[in-house]
């Protein structure tokens, strides 16, 4: 009596895309766009590499999709509080420490995708909204006007990632206590930043 083969399971395209994005994140973070290989991404995702072209177009567009996903995640998981920039800096520090690929991908984007038409989805809008929110907080007297809104935002972001693994000052074997101290220093530095600096000081 012939045995009937079970019907083939329909391909779960969303699950395949998710595995490809995960594998691509690891590959791009480690090697950038030029060094990444679609065959390694396909193998890691356990997906035929031809589906990369079907779902995303090409390797550069796959990288753009990875960046879009990671920008969306940080915007969703780290709420911006203009009235409490030190707290925001601390939360961003925690997120970046827990997600080391975030800054590596951003660095590769600057190196290999600058000058292209692609901007990570939502990033420009988010930066403009954050700047506008800081302006409102300054008008309300909640933040110093010593610095422009753009400077306050950029300085806060820079301080939050100063001790990340991608920083030349950071070490790979940083102890937990050192990490706590660095986080506290970041929060305190932003607190002093938003408090403003007197234009004249007694000698």
What does this protein structure show overall?
The chain is an all-alpha fold and 203 residues long. It is 65% helix and 0% strand. α1 crosses α4 (59-77) and α8 packs antiparallel against α9 (176-195). The chain is elongated and about 55 Å long.
CATH class of the domain at 66-195: Mainly Alpha
Helical fraction: 55-70%
Form type? elongated
Rg over CA atoms: 22 Å
CATH superfamily of the domain at 66-195: Tetracycline Repressor, domain 2
Largest sheet: none
Residue share in β-strands: under 5%
Give the second-level CATH assignment, the architecture of the domain at 66-195. Orthogonal Bundle
Say what the CATH topology of the domain at 66-195 is.
Answer: Tetracycline Repressor, domain 2
Question: Could you list the spans in which at least 5 consecutive residues all have pLDDT below 50?
Answer: 5-10, 199-203
Give a summary of the structure in a few sentences.
The chain has helices spanning 13-35, 38-45, 50-56, 59-77, 85-98, 101-112, 123-139, 149-160, 176-195.
What would the keywords be for this entry?
203 residues; mainly alpha; Tetracycline Repressor, domain 2; 9 helices; elongated; disordered C terminus; DNA binding; Tet_transcr_reg_TetR-rel_C_sf; Putative TetR family regulatory protein; DNA-binding; HTH-type_TetR-like_transc_reg
């Amino acid at each position: 009596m012939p045995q009937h083969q079970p019907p083939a399971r329909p391909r779960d395209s969303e699950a395949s895309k998710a595995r490809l994005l995960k594998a691509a994140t690891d590959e791009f973070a480690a090697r950038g766009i030029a060094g990444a290989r679609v065959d390694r991404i396909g193998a890691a995702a356990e997906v035929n590499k031809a589906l990369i072209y079907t779902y995303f177009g090409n390797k550069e567009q796959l990288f753009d999709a990875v960046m879009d996903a990671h920008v969306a995640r940080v915007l969703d998981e780290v709420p911006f509080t203009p009235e409490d920039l030190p707290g925001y800096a601390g939360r961003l520090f925690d997120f970046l420490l827990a997600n080391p690929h975030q800054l590596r991908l951003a660095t590769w984007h600057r190196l290999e995708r600058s000058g292209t038409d692609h901007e990570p989805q939502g990033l420009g809008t988010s930066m403009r909204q954050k700047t506008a929110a800081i302006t409102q907080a300054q008008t309300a007297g909640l933040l110093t006007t010593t610095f422009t809104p753009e400077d306050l935002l950029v300085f806060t972001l820079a301080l939050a990632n100063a001790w990340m693994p991608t920083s030349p000052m950071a070490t790979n074997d940083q102890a937990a206590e050192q990490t706590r101290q660095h986080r506290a220093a970041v929060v305190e530095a932003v607190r002093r930043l938003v408090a403003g600096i007197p234009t004249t000081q007694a000698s």
